[in-house]
Amino acid sequence: MTTRSTKYNSVKMDVDIEKCREEQNWLKVIQLAEQLKEKERSPYFEYLANFLIGEGKLEKYLEEWPPIEANIHRAKIGLMEAKQFLELACSSEGNKADVALDSLLLLGKMYYACGQYSDSLNSFKSADLDALSEKKLPLRSLRMVAESFAIRALCNVKVAAGASKFKKAEKDDETLRSFEIAADLTLLYTQELEKQQYTGVSGTGTHSPQPPAGNKVLSPILEQSLHEAPSMLLRQGKPIAALERYRVILSSVESQAVHTIRLKCLCQLAELILRGTVSNEYKPPTLMTKDSAWKPKQYSSLNQFVPKNECEESILVLLVAEAMAVRHTVLSQSAEFKEARLNAYHNATLVYDLLTLATVRWGQFALLQESFERAMKFSFEESHVWRQHALSLITAGRYVDALGIFKEVIRLEPNQSVNCLLVARLCYEHLNLPFEGTEFSMEAKKMEFSHSTGLLGRCYLYIGIGYQLQSRNTNLKQEEQVFNECGLKYFNSALEIEPNDHLSEFYLGLQLAIMGRISEALSHVQTALDLRSESSSTLHLLALLLSANSQHVDALEVVEAALQEYPDCLNLMYVKAYLELHLDGGEKALVTGKQMLELWKTLYEGQISSDVPECDRRSDTRSVFQLYTSEMSDKDSSSLQAHSMAASRVEHALSEVASSISSFSPRPGPQRAWLLQMEVWLLLAEIYLTLDEPAYVQQCIQEATQIYPLSHHIMHMRGVLHMYKKEWSEAKLCFQNAVAINPQHIKSLQQLGLVYCYMGSQGLAESTLREAAKIDPKNHITWYNLGKVLEALGEYEDASNCMATALNVETTSPILPFTSVPLCFE
After folding, report:
1. Helix orientation angle between 220-235 and 259-274, rounded to the nearest 10 degrees
2. CB atoms near residue 312 (< 10 Å)
3. Name one GO cellular component term (predicted).
4. What is the C-alpha to C-alpha distance for residues 346 and 342, in angstroms, rounded to an integer?
């Protein structure tokens, strides 16, 4: 009876000891080991107890003082007792007790903590670490073996200095292999640990949703092993192997203990792909099979998504990282959670910054914008995420929303002028709010004076742009002159602050050109090109300045040379078509017009079939996709940008009315893309008219009508066709309709004046043309037509003056107005 009781107690103590070891309850392990030593007098139990006491003292000490360099001196003293017990367990008797191997592994760990790297390696050599068979191990043994491989690799790194090249290469191979084995074992250990947490030790279940507190965080050694293998491969110049190592880590079934490490690895994998170092040899991931008891369990299912290229893989891992980061964000603003909140926010912003790079590179702006929408809930008073959100809204075409977000960013960062400048650019480029843009630029200038960030020159430049745009929007000549003078003053100030800024030179040249000072403008444009020869907007302006000097051949050469550099720039192709129309007639211009239609199809066909906004093809050549029609002297629409923002507000309202008509429905997709196509059709209509092809003109007008049936541009072109056919009444009605929609439409006023003249209404003709002259006194066609009307009225002196004015203005008139040059901010 006594014997049975003794055996029962011994077995129970063994179970208790193993349970405490797995739970890392080292105080209890030491107590049980000392009891074992007292109760069992055989050598077997004595050496087992020595091992357990040494293990308990080592692990308990390292929990308080992790094995890092800063703790080495302390460890040499603090681990002396643990060393004595482990050395006792390493004897031949300890080998009989089956504890010598584990003792050697723990001695290796102890020597590493004490900074005795060579002794540590000798311990692992004595343990014959590489000879261990890859079989299923108990939880505690799994951790010990994982740490042993990791420590051997870390010691190899420490003692590598001074070794021969051959020895170093050999050691590097062993180190890398050790790190990889350690990483696999670490992942397997965390999986088994979590599985045990849910199933319970020895079959006992648990309802706790969290693992024990002591098991939540990996030891520094195991954590380092997961990071070191891919890092070492990258240092060795093996990015593909590093990519595969990251994939092994990330395709392993996740456990709570590696959550933070997994998030870091996701970001590091994305960085590796985004750097482009794996592009040439990139291969999509493959589903892995477990071929060893030491390999972690991998995710696998029939419906598992496998990325097919770099784009898919980088965005996939970052979306997974975002889901992990957002899940652990801290929403509470209480002071007690400040550190946790900041750490979680830091992790999330790292993911969002990488996601921004990935989505912008691959044109997936919708994903980015949705991600920043989700980020708002934990970004209270965090200006960085708010700014990124605003920028993502711009890429999504939600400009008004972006303006509202940017105002909040300005509130959060009252001393950062760059935010005001970004808002000013948004107002200028997308919202047709030049006054508001000027105000924001002025605010940025004030910030620069109080908290300089080196952007004062840009502030003056943006103020100048604001005044330049305001001058185009006013109908009062006095106001226009004031705005032009203000713009000129600020551009000069910007150039004084940054004398080598090509943008200041460009805008100063553009302002001088608008004011009719062609020779001065040419000088500044040449300087701008010297500073940045590849700027398409500057080349565009140069071509117009040359045409204003009647150097149309030279202008065409400039445009053709620019198109060699920017073959997909519709702006330059538009200028080319008009120059060809002027120099060679319609045949060459027709070829260019058809090329524009083909280019439009290439650039936009993918966009119009979906709801994706026009935002994935931006460059210096088409930053706002401005295109210009034959109505380029319009005060309301000097570019398609202005057309789509100002005059087209009326057109859009009319188009909504038209949409109620069963025969019309708006085209799907981004409307700006369709506006561009409409402009190309109208250009082709004008070209066909010069070729005496009225049937084709009618077809082109019909194509444009299907896009915006009530556009004043289309009505004007219809009127021109009726004039060609000498159908005066129909022409008059078309021009009157165009002017009714847009009273500032110069071309329609010019043609309407002529129609009145041909119909014998000379008084109406004169008043109409004088109205056009008030709107734009620098248009030579207006003065010429007015001269013809006055001549018909018998007012020969006034007619002569008008003709002289027309000749004088024509000498400085470009092939298209200077205001047709697209805005440039880069």
Report:
1. 10
2. 14
3. plasma membrane
4. 6
Instruction: From 675, 655, 674, select the one nearest 665 (Cα to Cα).
Output: 655
Phi, psi of 155 (to 5 degrees): -65, -40
> Using the 8-state DSSP alphabet, how is residue 822 labeled?
P
Q: Count the residues in the chain.
A: 826
- CATH 3.30.930.10 at 500-820, yes or no: no
Q: Where are the domains of the chain?
A: 237-287+306-327+349-354, 500-820
Tokens of 191: 């999986």
Residue 703: burial class (beta carbons within 10 Å; 0-12, 13-18, 19+) = middle
Q: d(Cα 311, Cα 291) in Å, to the nearest integer? A: 30
Model confidence at 626: pLDDT above 60: no
**pLDDT for 666:** 59
- Asked if 678 and 707 touch (Cβ cutoff 8 Å), the reply is yes
What whole-number distance in Å separates Cα of residue 381 and Cα of residue 45?
63
Residue 680 amino acid letter: V
- Which range, 207-221, 286-300, 639-653, is most confident? 286-300
pLDDT in tens, 651-679: 454 554 454 444 555 565 567 788 888 99
The DSSP secondary structure of 72-99, one letter per residue, reads: HHHHHHHTHHHHHHHHHHTSHHHHHTT-
Question: What CA–CA distances, in Å, run from 763 to 207, 734, 754, 799?
Answer: 96, 20, 11, 14
More confident residue, 606 or 387: 387
The confidence score (pLDDT) of residue 714 equals 92
Alpha-carbon gap, residue 771 to 768, rounded angstroms: 5
Q: What is the pLDDT of residues 716-730, one digit of tens each?
A: 999 999 999 999 999
Number of H helices and E strands in the chain, helices first, is 38, 0
Cα separation, 648 vs 630, whole angstroms: 16
Written as six digits, the tokens of 662 are: 């069963």
Which of 728, 729, 671, 738 minimizes the C-alpha distance to 701?
Answer: 738
> Looking at the DSSP assignment, which residues form a beta bridge with residue 298?
252
Residue 332's pLDDT is: 65
Contacts 24+ apart (CB under 8 A), 415-418: 415/447, 415/450, 415/451, 416/447, 416/451, 416/453, 417/444, 417/445, 417/447, 417/448, 417/451, 417/453, 417/455, 417/459, 418/444, 418/453, 418/455
